[in-house]
Amino acid sequence: MLSPVPLPSYGSGRSEREVRLAVLRPGQASPIRPSRCWRRLLLGTRTLMVLGLTVTVMTMAGCHRSSGEIPGLQLPRAHRSASTAAAPAVGATAAPAPSEPTSTAESSSGGSPARLNRSLAKNSIYAVDLGGTRVTCTVKVRSPKPPLKDANLAPYGKKLVSCLVKAFAKPLAIYGIDLTAPKIKAYRKSIKTPCGRFGQRGAPAYYCSITRTIYWPVTGDNGSEAYTFARLGYIGLVAHEFGHHLQGASGMLSEYAQRSYETKSRSERYLLSRRLELQAQCFEGIFLAVTAESIGLSSSDRDQLRMWHAYTGDEDPPGSRKPDHGSSAAQIRWLNRGMESADFGRCNTWTAKKKSVK
Ligand SMILES: [Zn+2]
Question: What is the spatial distance between Cα 173 and Cα 246, in angstroms, rounded to a whole number?
Fold first, then answer.
């Protein structure tokens, strides 16, 4: 999760990523909350469920106010903060069905299909260990220096995404995970998407799982307080959003959406959100690890990443943030896990103890 990196001297910078989901009936144009009866039916007949559970993963960040929405579900209006009203209203009008057939893929070793485990806790992705793997990216790191010209943002993002796909597609395919490139959409002013309307000030980037697109506000990298204060800011941001894309490709977002919807506990939803966001953080770290030589990952870069996330934690500023992304310490810890191991199996936030995802 998290991304943007506000500098201390600029005040309350922080990044926030949210996951929202909408539960849809087939053909329904907008998210609804089912009645209790319907919900019981839904819970009891999971295999018959013909709902589209959609998760929209977004990155909210910067020095702006938190959008305040609870991850996973849209809160009743009464629970929203004043700042929420200005945040993009996120909803879904279309969704991939959670009951997609299990994906299979030919194993590169024996030819037998690898059955995809789409669950959060035992997902097939955890078998992918890229320790020792080296990937070369041709993309220049922070060149030209930020802010990029608006017209260059999407092309640059696409290059980064291409490298992410290059790094992960083949090893994931061995385990049945079909990875395609998400789209990149840089936009001016605001943009209306199936996941809601996004503006320029809410976040440095948004990932919408419905359209499999990373939405990138063109002014997000302007100014010295932007996430680009870090040399690897652009890469980190896109890699984190791509982490959510990986969660979608591996099927995890479906279970996440379902669990987030089913729980009646707000704190439990926050916990789910933190596990999701911190995992994306870990996935970001894996990408930085496998491309370390190519992008020249240095101790200085690590320091900048630490500084970045020192201001993106749920604890900053005190009391004004919802605990949906994890503390700075947790964000750094999970990022480091990915960077130090390059092992997806080390990124299982879903079986981690609660204290490690606080
Ligand atoms: Zn995120």
Answer: 12
Cα-to-centroid distance, 109 and ligand 1 (Å): 34
Write down the domain spans for the chain.
8-357
User: How far apart (Å, rounded) are the C-alpha atoms in residues 1 and 108?
Assistant: 32
Distance CA 198, CA 188 (A): 10
Angle between helices 252-262 and 266-290 (to 10 degrees): 160
- Separation of CA 10 and ligand 1 centre (Å): 22
CA of 136 to the centre of ligand 1 (A): 25
Q: Which of 213, 13, 233, 235 is nearest to 139 (CA)?
A: 235
The yes-or-no verdict on residue 16 having pLDDT over 70 is no
Grade residue 225 by pLDDT with cuts at 50, 70 and 90: low
18 DSSP 8-state letter? E
Q: What is the pLDDT of residues 24-40, one digit of tens each?
A: 223 333 322 223 323 33
Spatial distance between the Cα atoms of 171 and 107, rounded to a whole number of angstroms: 10
Distance from Cα 319 to the centre of ligand 1, integer Å: 21
- What the block records as the tokens of 21 is 């989901």
How many A from CA of 36 to the centre of ligand 1?
A: 31
The Å distance, Cα 74 to ligand 1 centre, comes to 17
Encode pLDDT of 191-215 as tens digits. 999 999 999 987 789 999 999 999 9
Q: How far is the CA of 314 from the centre of ligand 1 (A)?
A: 13
Instruction: Give the separation between CA 299 and CA 301, rounded to whole angstroms.
Output: 5
Q: What is the average pLDDT across 234-255?
A: 96
